[in-house]
Every structure is written in C-alpha cells, then in structure tokens.
Amino acid sequence: MSVRMRHTRAHTANRRSHHALTAPRLSKCANCGAPHLRHRVCLACGHYRGKQIMDVVAQKAKQEKKAKAKARA
Q: Which domain holds residue 48?
C-alpha cells in the first residue's frame, strides 16, 4: 500500500522541533556555593533549604570502607 497523504520534510521537522533535550537546571548551594540540581540535597555538603540533611563525611567513609572490603575479597 502506498502512502496517500505524505508528510513533507518540513512538516516532519516542524513536529520534531520540540523534541530537543534541555540541560538540567542548576542552583547554587546557599551553604557551600556548589552547583546542585533544584529541589535536591547538595551532594557536596549535604544541606537542603538551610538544614543538614545527610552527613557527607560519614557516607564517604562508609563507601571507602566498603571498597576496601571488596578489594580484599
């Protein structure tokens, strides 16, 4: 079967003009000044909206300990 009403390249391009990817919006952390995704905890210091949410130092130590244990095995 042949296509009865073919879409031109221009018509197809106009439809696809809204398919472009956008860069993530970054905000500046009020505590340390590092860029972070909006409405999410700053991964550099662990603060969100002026409050300490997660302990970054303890989390880093836990990851290193786990990596050392995996290297031994």
A: 26-72
